[in-house]
Design brief:
Elements (H helix, E strand, L loop, with lengths): L1 H26 L3 H12 L5 H8 L5 H14 L1 H10 L6 H11 L5 H14 L3 H11 L22 E6 L5 E5 L23 E3 L14 E10 L9 E6 L5 E6 L2 E6 L10 E4 L9 E10 L10 E6 L1
Antiparallel strand pairs: 1-10, 2-3, 2-4, 4-9, 5-8, 5-10, 6-7, 6-9
Length: 307
């Protein structure tokens, strides 16, 4: 008898509190009180479904954001079509939440479909950056350098070392992290870079008046002499890039240096034997990622011709 009375009391109390929460959510204009009421309903098994349905359409972006997050955590299959509809939400915070949830999807096709929809719907830089990260940056090349190949049965000799010019480079920041995508990616050999700003290598970009952390691109047009006689390989030797770098030669990706922040003072080389055009003009493009402090190609680059 006592257990029955206790159960009925709890049921009545919950019904009362639930009713008060719904009333607050539907009739109160105080943002803080509405959010508290929504969370009470959302985190109760009895009212979860109704709260999610209400929250996904609420006028408060924070409530919509919480609703799609909790639905995703509860049932990803059910959340997926809702996420596809919310890619055009007028709140950047909601769009970013949708993209972040998409990054957790195992299905690459679904993940990329949502990110592409967000990119098509939003012009907000932070939203587009989040979508770009969801799409990923998958440029990677594993190459055994001629200079360090253990299969060589002879001593590798440097026939010629050509120091790339310090000046003559062009530069562009990539706040949206989208420079590698689209019909005219920044590494394209024929890209119109007439509006890019001049920059020098051998100095960080901060020391050249560019206070910036993030992704940026360098481009250089380089005229090379005729190929040295006996040359068997060519490698670009980067003496210092702060912090990570990806390299293209004549539009072809040739290698990366991606050790995170710890790679800022570690020299590296990439092979460009097949990509170089001797006796002609060449396009050298470097994508640099800097997370903190100084950034950029702060030391020289040497083209090493090997035999």
């Amino acid at each position: 008898m006592k257990k029955t009375i206790l159960f009925l009391a709890l049921f009545w109390a919950f019904g009362l509190f639930g009713h008060e929460s719904w009333t607050t959510l539907q009739e109160n204009s105080d943002v803080v009180l509405r959010r508290k009421a929504f969370k009470k309903l959302l985190y109760s098994a009895e009212t979860f479904e109704k709260a999610v349905a209400f929250g996904l359409k609420d006028r408060d972006a924070q409530i919509r954001r919480i609703a799609i997050y909790e639905l995703f955590m509860h049932d990803r299959k059910r959340a997926l079509p809702v996420m596809h509809k919310m890619v055009a939400d007028d709140s950047p915070e909601v769009c970013i939440m949708v993209v972040e949830l998409a990054r957790a999807l195992e299905d690459k096709g679904e993940r990329e479909a949502i990110a592409e929809k967000v990119l098509a719907a939003s012009k907000v830089s932070e939203v587009r950056k989040a979508a770009s990260r969801a799409l990923g940056f998958d440029f990677f090349r594993e190459v055994t350098l001629y200079s360090s190949n253990p299969a060589n049965d002879h001593e590798v000799v440097t026939l010629k070392a050509i120091e790339l010019p310090k000046n003559g480079w062009l530069f562009k920041t990539d706040e949206s992290e989208m420079g590698h995508r689209g019909e005219k990616p920044f590494f394209l050999e024929t890209l119109d870079d007439s509006e890019w700003r001049p920059i020098s290598i051998g100095l960080s970009w901060e020391r050249q008046g560019i206070p910036y952390d993030g992704i940026a691109w360098y481009r250089l047009k380089l005229k090379l002499p005729e190929k040295p006689e006996g040359a068997q390989a060519s490698e670009l030797h980067f003496l210092g890039v702060d912090e990570a770098a990806w390299v293209w030669v004549n539009g072809t990706f040739v290698g990366q240096h991606n050790l995170g922040t710890r790679g800022w003072n570690i020299p590296f080389k990439v092979d460009c034997t097949k990509e170089l055009r001797w006796g002609a003009e060449n396009s050298i493009v470097v994508r640099v990622e800097d997370a903190e402090q100084a950034g950029g190609i702060y030391k020289g680059i040497i083209l090493e011709v090997l035999k």
